[in-house]
Structure of Putative tRNA (cytidine(32)/guanosine(34)-2'-O)-methyltransferase:
Amino acid sequence: MGKASKDKRDIYYRKAKEEGWRARSAFKLLQIDEAFSILKGVHHVVDLCAAPGSWSQVLSRRLYLPALQMGRPESAPKIVAVDLQPMAAIEGVTQIQGDITSSVTARQVISHFHGEKADLVVSDGAPDVTGLHDMDEFVQAQLILAALTIVTHVLRPGGTFVAKVFRGKEVSLLYSQLKVFFPDVTIAKPKSSRNSSIEAFVVCRQYTPPPNFSPSALQGLLASAAAEQDSRGEPSRAERLIVPFLACGDLSGFDADQSYDLPDEHYVSLDPVQPPTAPAYKSALAAKRQNQQQPREEE
Ligand SMILES: C[S@@+](CC[C@H](N)C(=O)[O-])C[C@H]1O[C@@H](n2cnc3c(N)ncnc32)[C@H](O)[C@@H]1O
């Protein structure tokens, strides 16, 4: 790491300590909000993959505490945070400990809203990286798809979804899938996210589910799209559809600080590559730990 980026990291690290944020990641959400005003008018919000909790702190300080200070606790926003890990309590934040890719956790989040809708869903999820880029990007993509499934149940039309992505060569497929639900999808690279990292954030605005869409239809919708798009004339298999993108780890052509225009197509066809299985992911992780390989930087 060069001196300049080291200094930059130290600035956000120090600032986080000074301002009482649990992680320097807080600045990523704050900078996304500066650029896109994602917190404006937000009442209910879901923070997926929230631990140790700096994004939840931002949500609490920006949304919940002001309502309390105005003496209106009854109209205070609802903030729900979910993570595999437990995290220390944050004022105004309800915590659910669980795996967002499991239907049990998804149902817990959905039922928490009692039919009310959220204005904003954020997801800063990152898997435990193996160092194998294809696999890491695949697992990251699974998190985004799980988050998107929750979004289709809890986000109000017109609402916003922000999620961390790893920008691999096939990331345009993910954009295309998001564009099915959001007419406005932008990729953002906040200054506090290291240039050396392939992470970026999709800012998806104006949630507009397709006509006649109901959340349980998500799988069917993607299935029929893939069937139409299967240019090889092979039968489409439902299991391919949970592969949001197939990553190759090739970052050439991506400028970390630039915003990209997104492809117009709603779908691109998927190659018939089997996703890594959970045992393959686990053994890759174990191998990484054994060989002491350097994981890719995430922040
Ligand atoms: C980069 S951290 C999030 C940082 C957080 N936004 C903050 O500001 O403190 C990524 C988190 O994703 C969580 N995570 C990864 N996979 C998950 C899953 N399947 N379900 C729930 N949380 C998950 C990890 O436990 C980790 O806490």
